[in-house]
Each structure stands twice: as C-alpha cells, then as structure tokens.
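Quick start: what a row looks like.
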Amino acid sequence: METLDQSWRGFKCRLKRDHYYMYDTYEERLKHPPERVPEAHYKTLLAYWGTPIAKKTSLHDYYKDLVPLKDINAEIEEFAKEKEVHAAQEAKIERKTKELESETLKLQEIRMDIKNQQGNITLDAVISALAQLRQKDPSLTLEIIAKAIVSTTTNDA
C-alpha cells in the first residue's frame, strides 16, 4: 500500500509541476490539461491547488524539504574544513619526513667519512672532517654530530 501511496504522490507532484506551476492563470492551465487525467478531476485539482490551505501546505512542505538540505550543506562544509586540515597535516608530515631523511643521509655521510679513514683516527682528523661538513651544511648541530659519533662507535663495537 505504501508503494501505491508513493506512486500517487509522485504522480500528483509531476502533474502539479507540469500543468499547474507551468502556467500563470487558470485559463492557461485549462488550455493545457494532462492527457491521463479526466477533465473533471483536473478541474477539481486546479480548484484545490488554488486554495490558501493547499498553497500553505505546499509552501510548508517545500521549506520542510529544505531543512535537511541545510543540514547536508553544513555537513559538507564541515567535511571540507576537516579535509583541508587533514591535507595541511599530511603536508607537514611529508615535510618533516623529508627533513629527517635529509638528516639521516648527512649522518650516514659523517659515519662513512669516519669509517673510510685508514689507521688510527686522530681527534684532529675528526674535528677537521666535522668542520668541513658543517661548512657544507650549517644546519648540522653539535647534538646531531654527537649522535652520529655515538651511533658509529656503538655499532662498530
């Protein structure tokens, strides 16, 4: 029964859209009747659709249907903001990852320089190598260098 109700409601909505709202006056509407509806029934519908009660109901239904659209639009806007924040966070993570990869490569270079030295490594040779690396890249802090040295000595032991 519900399917029949929905079908009838849909039919009336299409009928009203195509034959009532399409024309401005009662006479124009009568000149263009729907083929599937008897003329007497169509006139009854036109008379009903023209009453203040029917217009108020129609307007009420229209605004009632708009409320969910406002909710949906608000949700879409909220999702867009969240997506924007998420994209910014991903970009920040990507930048940090690249920075860390760069630092890792620099530290590996320090480690390889120390390993490639033949014989006994003197403190002066280490200081000289580190000074050269700091000239190449001033962002190498003493902490990073110390971590690299500790890492090298603990891995070799």
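That is the whole record. Residues 52-116 form the longest helix (65 residues). The chain has a mean pLDDT of 79.
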